[in-house]
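Expect sequence, tokenised fold; for instance:
***
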Amino acid sequence: MRKIVDIRPLKRELRAKYRRIRERMNAAQKKEWDHMIFCRLVEAPFYKQANTLFCFVSTAIEVDTIAILKQAFADNKTVAVPKCMDRNGHMEFFIIHSLDELREDMFGLLEPDPAQCERATDFTDALCILPAFAFDTEGFRIGFGKGYYDRFLQRFSGVKAGICYNNCMTSSLPHGRYDVPADFVVTPKYILTVKKQEEQSHD
């Protein structure tokens, strides 16, 4: 009988490790790396070909996505941002037309207002930008540990791209059978192609 290994403690340890790296990052260095990631992403074919951008609104220790969201508006893409609907890992994306439509929640996070915004349900020609503390070379990630993206990605059929600093990239991360890897990971130095788009179209 196959032994089931609990990878949660290892994930918690890695999450703490990469959180420390993020928190200790020099502000000027972070700003430079954020801009380099932005430039690589918006020039990538998978970004240009996407009609809808599903993208998180970044916090201080994450790769900046505000510039990405603003560029998507300028490029006339449909823009959808996430809202956690409950504490059980249920997350939905809602379409916004401006950053002014975002509201702070009780934790200071910027989220869409479900009463004012339309829920995004069409994943045709869509690109989802994935947050994480770290990614590995197979596209797997160490997230924030709540499971919101893991559940959402089970039903998301578009292209998935992680954004990550090079010092938070590693060769291998622990992952379970329900973890969904990114198709691409964009770093300041390169774009890692995990799965070519041509392959996806034949799956």
